[in-house]
Amino acid sequence: MIVRIAARGDGITTDGRHVAGAAPGDVLKDDGSLEYGSHHAEPPCRHFTRCGGCDLQHCDDIALRQFVHDRVAHAAASQGLEPGEVLPVHLSPPRSRRRCSLHAVNAGGKPVIGFREKGAHRIADMRECHVLRPELFDLVAPLRRILAGRKGRHAVDIELASVDQGVDCALTDYPMEGLEATEAVLDFARENGLARLSVDQGHGSETLWEPEPVTTTLSGVPVEFPSGGFLQATTDGEAMLANAAREWLAECATAADLFAGLGTFSFALAGPVKVLAVEGARDAHLACKVAARRGDRPVHAMHRDLFRNPLQPEELNRFDGVLLDPPRAGAREQAASLAESEVARIVYVSCNPSSWARDARRLIEAEYRLEKILPVGQFTWSTHVELASLFVR
Fold first, then answer.
1. CB atoms within 10 A of CB 133
2. What does the CA dihedral 109, 112, 117, 119 come to, rounded to 10 degrees?
3. What distances in angstroms separate CA 130 from CA 94, 123, 126, 269, 279, one per listed residue?
4. Domain ranges for the chain
5. 320: confidence class by pLDDT, cuts 50, 70, 90
6. Which of 109, 122, 171, 334 has the smallest number of CB atoms closer than 10 Å to its CB?
7. Could you tell me if 371 and 392 are in contact, meaning their C-beta atoms sit under 8 angstroms apart?
8. Is residue 270 scored above 90 in pLDDT?
């Protein structure tokens, strides 16, 4: 019997064996085949098992929620953490992903576009997609047509993001020779109503098309969106994380938002809370700073590399609460500094339960209590899990 799903998507039997493509409740027969149980679902996409974009389309929503819960719970248990409350899992619905990185190659004169295959550099040619928002997937066919006119071997990386004005598209390793090639990409941008088209021909990205400044709205505040900038994967996932942060820090008069990015959480908190938004990427920092000034929000933006120069305890002690949302590697040094501070409430948002649990252990050792965890599955049908957590001293 398959009892749960492992971190990489395999089913695990009662005796610890890993079985690819198995869902909880399935039965592994003696001949190695599976007898499907009540939580085994029919994968909706023809590319499933080949395309690396999804791992768990064979699981129903009950199994998916349990998987997201277990990923967070097992990470916490691995460090001896005992949360006061694990909140119900939030799953983003199909066709809600608002950003993606696709790849394109010329395969025998025909362009192939999509995600990479599982465990390979080959690309699964995308003819349907059940995770991307429709406006993103609708660009795949026009991209395929424009790439079909290119000669010789090529490999192009494609970044797509849904923004306030439509779709932001960035092409990397896309050399254009002559006026005709330039006109072709401009026609592509115009005919498909792109918000922006940026092209990197091998010596840095250049914006070729941007009828009006591109923005993304965060908690009602339009923020300039840098090409290749970071957004939470789905708007509903962002809302769940932001609402949790707002609720958990509502009693704070001041808060520091560390690894603030464009200000996703800064603007969610701002109003009743005065926020210091600290970010190391200069383009994101400047976008947050300008948006706060234009929107008249109580957000002060600071440019600082928190990996090399984390806020020190005496700096952190000026704040009633701290929110941190670091990259996948976590925030080892910043967590150590927080552990030595007098901050009363810490909200830690993470896209990697393992690095989160490591940093959380340091806070627990400093006598913080892990009061709440909110598991979030923004990446539909993938093994990628996010969470928000509240630590109180």
1. 20
2. 50
3. 6, 17, 11, 33, 33
4. 1-40, 68-93+231-392, 99-213
5. very high
6. 109
7. yes
8. yes
* Phi and psi, residue 185, nearest 5°: -70, -35
pLDDT in tens, 51-85: 999 999 999 999 999 999 999 999 999 999 999 99
Q: 117: exposed, middle or buried (C-beta count within 10 Å: 0-12, 13-18, 19+)? A: middle
DSSP 340: T
Of 275, 326, 283, residue with least CA distance to 303: 283
122-137 tens-digit pLDDT: 999 999 999 999 999 9
Classify domain 99-213 at the CATH class level. Answer: mainly beta
Which pLDDT band holds residue 152 (cuts at 50, 70, 90)? low
User: What does the block give as tokens for 255?
Assistant: 């808060």
Q: What is the pLDDT of residue 223?
A: 98
Q: What is the pLDDT of residue 357?
A: 97
- Interatomic CA distance for residues 332 and 338, integer angstroms: 10
Distance CA 187, CA 295 (A): 35
Global pTM value: 0.95
Best CA proximity match to 132, nearest among 92, 76, 180, 183: 92
Residues marked as catalytic = 351
Helix, strand, coil proportions of the chain in percent (round to 5)?
25, 30, 45
Long-range contacts of 340-344, Cβ-Cβ distance < 8 Å, separation of 24 or more: 340/313, 340/366, 341/313, 341/316, 341/317, 342/313, 342/316, 342/317, 342/393, 343/316, 343/317, 343/319, 343/393, 344/252, 344/320, 344/392, 344/393
Query: Which helix (H) or strand (E) element contains residue 308?
Result: none
Distance from the Cα of residue 216 to its chain's centroid: 15
How far is residue 201's CA from residue 160's CA, in Å, rounded to a whole number?
Answer: 17
For residue 141, what are the contacts with CB-CB under 8 A and spacing of at least 6? none
Q: Which long-range contacts (CB under 8 A, 24 or more apart) does 9-17 make?
A: 9/55, 9/56, 9/383
Alpha-carbon distance 214 to 224, whole Å?
A: 6
Q: Which two tokens stand for residue 159?
A: 């970044």
Phi/psi of residue 51, nearest 5 degrees:
-70, 135
How confident is the model at residue 108, as a pLDDT?
A: 72
- Reduced to 3 states (helix: H, G, I; strand: E, B; else coil), residue 391 is strand
